[in-house]
Amino acid sequence: MRSPFSEFIFHLFPKLLKNFNAKRLRSRLTHLIWRSLPTLFATIAMIPMVHFVVLQPIDFWAYNSFTSWRGDRSWDDRIVIVAIDDDSISKLGRFPWSRDLYVQLLQKLEQAHASVIGFDILWSEASPADQQLVAAISRNQRVVLSMAWDKAGQPLQPIAPVRNAGVAVGHILKREDADGIVRQIDLQIQDIPTLAVAILQTYKLTTATTLLPDLSQPLSINWTKSVKLMPQVSFSDVIDGKVPDTVFHNKIVLIGVTASGLDRLVTPFDRNPPASGVHLHATVLQNLLQKSSLAIVKPIYIWSFALLGSLFISLILPRLNLWTGSINAVVLSGLWLIIACTAFNINYWIEIAVPILMFLLTGFAIALQERWQMQRSLKIADAQILYKSTHDHLTGLYNRSFIENRLQNLLRRQDEPSQNSDQYNLITIFWINLDRFKNINDTFGHPIGNLFLIEVGQRLRESVPDSTSIARFGGAEFVLLIENVATEQDAIAVADLIQTNLQRPFIIERNEIAITVNIGIKFHQIDIVSDPYSCDVSKPEDILGDADTAMFYAKKLGNSCNKVFDISMRERVLKRLQLERDLRKAVALCQDPNNQDHQEFLIYYQPILSLSDMQIVGLEALIRWQHPERGLVSPVRFIPLAEETGLIIPIGDWIMRNACLQVQSWHQRFAKAKDITVSVNLSPKQLAQDDVLEKCLSILQQTKLSPKYLKIELTESSIMENPDFAIRILNQMRQAGIKIYIDDFGTGYSSLAYLHKFPFDGLKIDQSFVNNIHKNSNGAEILQAIVSLAQSVKAHIVAEGIENLAQLNHLQDLLSEDGDGQGFFLFRPLDVAAIEAIFQTT
Question: What pLDDT, in 10s, does the model give residues 298-339?
Fold first, then answer.
């Protein structure tokens, strides 16, 4: 007898062997190696290029270009250059000069209280005036001198008396790259720091604010200024006293030769004419002072990025066509160039040659791979296309294309009717819509929603005859084509069975889901015709459209309803489509600035009066549609259509822009209108737009209307569609100065529960409450309660729908201190001319 453990192993091991698919594993491994080959090819090709320094010119170009693209940057105002320029040599004589000129310069700088003085001039030979120079240096006590090396590598130091007088000595050796540009400098050679470091060490003694870098590592120079923009003064001007002492006060002063042909130095900014050594030391000193020298990214990181990018192109990015790999390589190369340029702007130097060439070589190798594999891929794609062209990818059901082709074949059938009584020519189309399927996706997620659709397809298969073609037309809509139906009642019985089966709850991954469906039914009798191309034969899209129309009317009846198509439905749909086309045309005209004379939309303005003095304090903008054939179309007809089609967004923008423009004009033209506000209704779809606030502010800016004169009216239901988003946007509107009013207050289900959360300035009491003031005993009490509620939250009140004197008197008593009124008894909506006539009266 086996033990329980051995029984477990006995049952588990065969199952593991059964599930282990070695062939699949080998296939995946082969695929991975195949896609990795471009990276391997690029890496092997890169090694000799790097070894023989073939790529260095590319990095040199990048360094020069990044410097030029970035342009000049701020200069450290602690550094001043005294230039031995062409003018100085012309005035003071041929260079080199006698020591007395430098003595005079030191005296000038001593008087100006310069912080540190650095000489990019080598005094390696004795002179009769050395004692005077030594005395001047000693008096200053903060003079840094230069040294160099001869051709034999021996140090060339300043003569001993001068060297001993200076506070420090720094070397002036420069390192030029193959293209002649200086990009790096050795901060220390044979324990001798560079001139800039020696100056910085001296400067540190006076300020104690600057830390020195690691002197064992070369400094990558960050060229930030062209020579002509570096702060410098002429040597002769300083000697002649033309430069004020404030230029040198507490500054680091560098003295060096800048005259033509004496000390040439090429920088990314300066090639012809070149810079000089003193400019190099000034730039290095600035890099040290500001800690702005270029930080070099290590080659190991560059190679890592290059390999990862190459693998990313090879393994992860899709290969949609022959050139996708090359395009990806070019894009990634461009991205790398942008990254390197951006890093350069923050003082990091990243080599570009290795990654970019790696990416391009990878893209080239991928192109070769794809070309070789193209024929094989096309064969596989043909088989997939054949299936996908007739099936839905998610459920495996047929798709629209298959149903339309099948209908076309049925409609073109010319076979003689069979003598068999089982042969029928009646076909039926079911258009099935799953109600509120979006809620399933939002609640359970799209993966559950997809599994649910698959399960719906399975139940449909179980509910229909074998002669039925089942298709999914996308989203939550299914279409069934039933052939050879005996009678219409048989088809309706199938629809009832579908309703019964789909009403049973679905269990998807332990989630119970219930749903209702609406079914539109279209019957079509196939007529046998002699001419297969007769115009009398119906089109598949017409039959499907009729079934869709029947489903639309089934949804109007409620949940779980079936509706058979009749011809009157098509006529109503055609009228609706015609109205939609006309509405789109009207919207296009209102958006075209060249067709302002042919506008079909009009804005009427209904005055809002203060109940205390019966003066007009505001206007509500109301749209009207002057149709060229239908005449004045009621907003009740076209506003719901505009909401459904999304046209309400451009219409609402047009109303707000033109209303603000009109009110601004009245402010300027009429004294009585200078403080008039305009109220504009904001639809739920407008409020849901991410840029609704930007649009409002842009319109106010374009029309030059102050935000305090604009009132936005919106219903509670529009806020409740997405309360968190709406409250955030409305708060921003109020902060911008726009007034927020809740329209039709009291009719929404959320009035009391959410009133304290809504950001608003006023409430418009719905006209149903105003009309009931005297109709029953509770009417006045309800209105009083609403007013008290509004006053408790300090909201301004506007009463809508005032239609008689009794209502007006009651509201005046109720809102005598602060309240407005609006209604047909006061003013009906008026056109622009009528409003202007009111404003012109005195």
Answer: 989 999 999 999 999 888 888 777 788 888 899 999 999 999
Instruction: With 0.70 as the threshold, say if the pTM is over it.
Output: no
pLDDT digit string, tens, across residues 76-129: 889 999 999 888 888 888 888 888 899 899 999 988 899 999 999 888 888 888
Rounded to an integer, what distance in angstroms lies between the CA atom of residue 387 and that of residue 396?
10
Q: Give DSSP secondary structure letters for 655-669.
A: HHHHHHHHHHHHHHH
Beta bridge partners of 4: none
Q: Is the pLDDT of residue 560 over 90?
A: no
Six-digit token string for 369: 């791979």
400 CB-near residues (< 8 Å, 6+ apart): 471, 473, 474, 479
**Left if phi > 0, otherwise alpha if psi is -120 to 50, otherwise beta: which for 652?**
alpha
Phi, psi torsion values for 177, nearest 5 degrees: -80, 180
How many residues are given for the chain? 842
Contacts of residue 150, Cβ cutoff 8 Å, sequence gap at least 6: 156
Q: How far is 458 from 413, CA to CA, in rounded Å? A: 30
- Alpha-carbon dihedral sign for residues 337, 340, 343, 347: negative
Question: In 3D, which of 172, 207, 265, 235 has the Cα closest to residue 76?
Answer: 207
d(CA 417, CA 195): 108
Q: Where are the alpha helices (DSSP H) in 646-797?
A: 648-669, 684-687, 692-703, 716-720, 723-735, 751-754, 767-771, 777-792
Distance CA 300, CA 117 (A): 41
Provide CB contacts within 8 A for 287, sequence distance 6+. Answer: 219, 221, 222, 293
Identify residue 215 by its one-letter amino acid code: L
> What angle, rounded to 10 degrees, do the helices at 567-591 and 648-669 form?
40
Phi-psi category of 534—alpha, beta or left, where left has phi over 0 and alpha has psi -120 to 50? beta
Q: Which token pair is 337?
A: 């160039």
DSSP 315: I
DSSP at 180: S
Residue 837 in 3-state DSSP? helix
Q: Which of 667, 766, 756 is nearest to 710 (CA)?
A: 667
CA-atom Rg of the chain in angstroms:
43
424 backbone dihedrals φ, ψ, rounded to 5°: -125, 155
Question: Which of 323, 204, 307 has the alpha carbon at shortest distance from 252?
Answer: 204
* CB contact at 8 A, 745 and 786: yes
The tokens for 728 are 């955030």
Rounded CA-CA distance 547/566 in Å is 10
* Those residues with Cβ within 8 angstroms of residue 749's Cβ, 6 or more apart along the chain or in another chain: 716
Measured CA to CA in angstroms, residue 827 lies from 489, 673, 842 at distances of: 58, 16, 18
Q: Under a CB-based contact definition with an 8 Å cutoff, are residues 351 and 59 in contact?
A: yes
What DSSP character marks residue 476?
T
